[in-house]
Amino acid sequence: MAPPSCETATVRVLCPKLLLSSGNQPGALQWLIGSPFFPPFTVVSTFRCIHQSPDLDQESDDLRKLLPKGFEVIGGLIVGDSDAEKSALEAVRAARRLRKSISEGGELDDEKIVGASVDAGTGAIHFFISKTEKLAKLEPVASIVYEEDKSGKYLWENGCLLHCELPIKLPFYFPASSPSESKKMFSEAVDAVITQFKEPNVVYIAETLKKASGDVPKPVVLRGKDFGFGADASNINRLPAAEDQVSDIISCSHLCLNSKPAALVNSAENADKIQISLMLNRSEKSPTSGAPVAEYFPAMEEARVIVVDLNLDVLTYAPKELPLMHAVSNLVIPALVDQLYSLKKIILPHLLMEHPQLRIYHFNPPGVLHPITTVYELNYGETEMKQVDVRKSLHMRLGLPLDRPLLRTANALDLSVNDDSRSNTKKRGSIQLKDVHIGIPSSGVSEGVASVIQGSYEYYHYLQDSFDDSGWGCAYRSLQTIISWFRLQHYTSISVPSHREIQQTLVEIGDKDPSFVGSREWIGAIELSFVLDKLLGVSCKIMNFRSGSELPEKCRELALHFETQGTPIMIGGGVLAYTLLGVDYDEGSGDCAFLILDPHYTGGEDHKKIVNGGWCGWKKAIDSKGKSFFLHNKFYNLLLPQRPNMV
């Protein structure tokens, strides 16, 4: 099918619109990311240009490492002035230069690409199409469709991930008298490995990464002699699912799950994954027989040998209907080549010294629809400034907040698990339900704007772990829920403390006498703040109210907390405590509701029972009968934990 003309072209934006318009500094440049497998002019994500001028060599090196094969730069967006086309043309020219640098080619770029300009004053975004590098004039785009709500489903219903790990111990030799020759010999050894990727006797084995309870497709064996290297994977005919069953050509869908719950198709973490393993077949049958031959190549002078560890780990994206052979030859193998060259570039300056310990990680941070790949040096701990600076740079490029540990190794995608029945709850060894507020009925605030907790938590309540704390342990349970939030967002690795451990902490800091340990005394906001500071280093803000009727007056402030901090809040009133997960506030009428998680529940871990019983749900400040959930106590205090400022 021919690409649409610019007059009828539609730019589809799958990433949040906020990412496009963020960073309103004049001249700020972003790269628009799409895929050759999507309709033309479909923007999947944006990467900020973080090098000045821009330094396209450094930019192309970074994007070659970060961006999985199956995605590519399709244009540029710049913050400009009132002359939108002039600004967009500047973005287009930068994007074309970057595309050439990434592909390491100098030919003309005849692909149609997108140029966009953000008005620094109004934030309005104007899109244009550049037909070819030869033409300086851009064509305006009239139709722009934002489809953020469908984005995850669009990517992962139709596509899958191919994952390949390849540990290499690479020896190379160089004259002991000429250390300067080492870099040349190492480069030649790397090139020899790359040649092996495409040898006729190389074998690639593809198998499904997720072992579902039903039938698992048999692994597929692909041989190098059958590959068609260099083809444009985006133009290869795709196979309808039905044809895959009767054709000798096997598509990626053959190794994908036929069905899965709708909730599990909207993220890279739950996408279909295919594992690719590489082997060299040195034992093919020969028509003639012969004895093994050993060849001896004597060194002409004293030589030195160095062994370099290169642990390749690539992730690529492919449509499910793409023939598996082409997915491997045109996506996986080029990804291995690019990553090998990237690691070589990092190691070369240290070749004759201690080599950096390089490790590949894949992440799928919020707001970025596709995975990204990073190379971390494990010589440095995660809190060492050099590693912190690396993560800060990545956060800036991806438009991520600088106070959240989204790219720490604990948040990396887990691609090694082979059991679909796993769950995060089971993996952490706990029995608590997670995120019980998801799917509950609406608040009833007709024109309200809901601001809720960001991230996951576990629901702690009375009588869990066969421990009877009914009547006195609600604040302890609220604190456990709050600490579980910090655990699940990877701000801490400590276990959620028991009631006794919470009491011991308060004794250790001198707030309570030793007799407090093992007692049934309740605690409040002050004690919770002491424990969070001691165990997690988390500071808290405390708000005091003379009566529950004052709470609605603070709805705007509470909404701001959930939008900026996103942490659960403990509400204390008299001897009662609750966990606040969000507010729904109508600024015009003042009507509001509070999303309450009630730790006084004493039943089992039954989500339906919890929601239907009102143990997790919206509570109106004033209901239809004029009653308020908060008026049964004269005094309230709120504990608002603050996110640590860390990446």
From TrEMBL:
Annotated ranges, domain UFSP1/2/DUB catalytic: 450-639
Any one GO molecular function term: deUFMylase activity
UniProt key word Lipid biosynthesis: no
Name of one Pfam family that matches: UfSP2_N
Entry keyword set: Hydrolase, Protease, Thiol protease, Ubl conjugation pathway
Keyword ATP-binding set for record: no
TM segment ranges: none
Domain (UFSP2 second): residue spans on this chain: 271-415
Domain of life according to the entry: Eukaryota
GO terms for biological process, alphabetical: proteolysis
UniProt similarity note: Belongs to the peptidase C78 family.
Protein name according to UniProt: Probable Ufm1-specific protease
